[in-house]
Amino acid sequence: MAMGLVLAYALPLAWRGAVRHQLDQWLRWLYSGFTAWVLLGPLLLSLSVFTDAALLLAALCSVTMAWCAWRDGATKPRNSGYRDVVTNLLNRSGLDVVCGALPAASRITVVVLCELKDKKHPRYAMGACSALALQCFAQLLLRSVREGDFVARIGSQEFALALRDLDMAQAQALVQRIQAGLPRFASLDNCRASFGLALVHEMDSLDTALHRADVALYQSKEEVGHSEPLASVV
Predict the structure, then answer these.
(1) What is the per-residue DSSP string for 133-149?
(2) Which of 12, 152, 178, 180 sits in a 20 to 30 Å window from 138, CA-based?
(3) By three-state DSSP, how is residue 113 classified?
């Protein structure tokens, strides 16, 4: 019963975190079911063998949920001050926190800067985009990256990706998938995204890597022919 009370106390914590994969949701249901079994099983069954088996399985599930909570805590900040209010992505401060002083130490190998602009807006030169377009683009970025990668909105129209364990060719393929996904959102029909990619060297700070990606982004916007989204690499 004591273990059941501990599991019940931890249950709200297990449900509080964000779900990034379907497996997380199944683990939560499994954890909830075992917690209920531990609490109610002794009242329903008199055979101790079932209770013992439930306690063992609940303990294993508890360890699994603890690992999931640790993983979430290790890969993203919980402070709401690290979140962008429009897109709910990390902001620049949040990106600094998750990447650390030396991003390469966290196995971040490539950073990508993205700039979204509305081609038909009268203030196109200033990069005006609607909040809905920014939110849709944020969702597109989140769907395109893998677990362990980081997505942030670091400016009015600028987004950043910090990609782990990818080489430049793989990062370029990911950018191409993002570009191909733009027409799938009606709110992004009139938008064009430009990208700059940069490798993260062993002793690079996040600022250094983002600066090189910014140079690449500037080059992509200076290329001849702006009818299609562009990407440049440094």
Answers:
(1) HHHHHHHHHHHHS-TT-
(2) 12
(3) strand
CA atoms within 13 A on the CB side of 89: 29
Neighbouring CB atoms inside 10 A of 94's CB total: 22
Q: Tell if the pTM clears 0.85, that is, is over it.
A: no
CB atoms within 10 A of CB 106: 18
- Which pair of tokens denotes residue 23? 């497996």
Cα 213 from Cα 232, distance rounded (Å): 9
CA angle 212, 216, 218 (to 5 degrees): 115
Cα 105–chain centre separation: 19
Q: Let me know how long the chain is.
A: 234
Give long-range contacts, CB 8 A cutoff, 24+ apart: 170-175: 171/110, 171/112, 171/197, 172/197, 172/231, 172/233, 174/112, 174/144, 174/145, 175/112, 175/231
Over the chain (234 residues), the average pLDDT of each successive run of 10 is 54 51 60 66 57 63 61 52 91 93 94 86 56 92 94 94 96 94 85 92 95 91 55 63
- Is there a contact between 174 and 110 (Cβ–Cβ < 8 Å)? no
